[in-house]
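Below is how a single chain appears once it has passed through the pipeline. First comes the sequence as given, then the structure the pipeline wrote out for it. We keep one example in the README because the format questions we get most often are answered faster by looking than by reading.
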Amino acid sequence: MAVSRATFDEVMLPNYAPQAVIPVKGQGSYVWDQAGREYIDFSGGIAVNCLGHCHPELVQTIKEQSEKLWHVSNIWTNEPALRLASKLVKSTFADKVFFCNSGAEANEAALKLARRYAVDQFGEEKDQIIAFKQSFHGRTLFTVTAGGQPAYSDGFGPKPGGISHAVYNDLASVEALISDKTCAVIVEPMLGEGGVLPADPDFIKGVRALCDKHNALLIFDEVQTGFGRTGHLYAYQGLGVTPDILSTAKSLGAGFPIGAIITTDEIGQHLKFGTHGTTYGGNPLACAVAETAFDIINTSQVLEGIKQREAAFRQQLELINQKYNVFSEIRGKGLLLGAVVNEAHEGRAREFVAAAMEQGLMCLVAGANVVRFAPSLIVEQQDIVEGFNRFDKAVARVVAGD
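Resulting structure:
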């Protein structure tokens, strides 16, 4: 059956507006469309394809596990889930793991756990959750309300209550909201969808101290920053601050859907038998793929390589900016980077992304003013150079059109 972009409009709900090309094949940092045209992928499936496309070890794992066991439900456990959980516990602050299928589900579980912990320990009045404006935590009604972007949560009827929003990197705004009725603060170590904006270390340390003062749990949403993206297995390890609960997804499965929360024994015991669950979460196929991705990423060679690749990306972006003067700042960490357009090009990030696609480069936006790059964590140096050759041409086209 032949399909095209027009088929999307005929049979799919209109909540997405995909580009005209349809990718059909990927290998490493390269993707090919239906017409056989080749692209370099610096979008990484929105920070998901941490090992590029069709990594041979992941392909082999899928083949082997697909001939063993795909799904058994959580009436039984399974070996890949137990191995993956053991490796996550060994490599982080955590004692316990809960598997689900996505970042939204992970954040939903984290918020539910925080509320349940507070009810059990302090009573039902301790229910306030503090999140941040311009944050993003998922698309369930609970997580989209926690996310500080009303455009995503308005229009769906009554929203879950007890959620307040502070200003990111503004400790005083947190201090003004927090009290002994606060059960949790949920924060991204770096805003992803909200503009690739890293947290100030003093801000994060201050939030940790306020949580401790008011017996509130600190939740780190590491769906986008986690699993190697910043050059650490998880971003908290480079900030000197340890959360109470951490959510992870995206790169965790290297493209295969899986999410998780990790936490301590003390907190985790409050998600008792029957309090929360998921049909597909922790299935052996997803966990086998994630375990292989973990074994590849959680090595000094890959994690140190991310820092080297970050330097190469920054160098290329600075060279382009010296020629065209279109960016006011290059920010982010590791291989989650944002090029902030300057006042002369305000609101035009999508034009740069569209022009890049025309030149054979896939990248992203993070709001109206930030071009976002979230490539494979093992992208080759020659692909970085070629990708930015194409981006250079794209920037030139946008500037010439001014």
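The chain has a mean pLDDT of 96.

See the next section for the split statistics.
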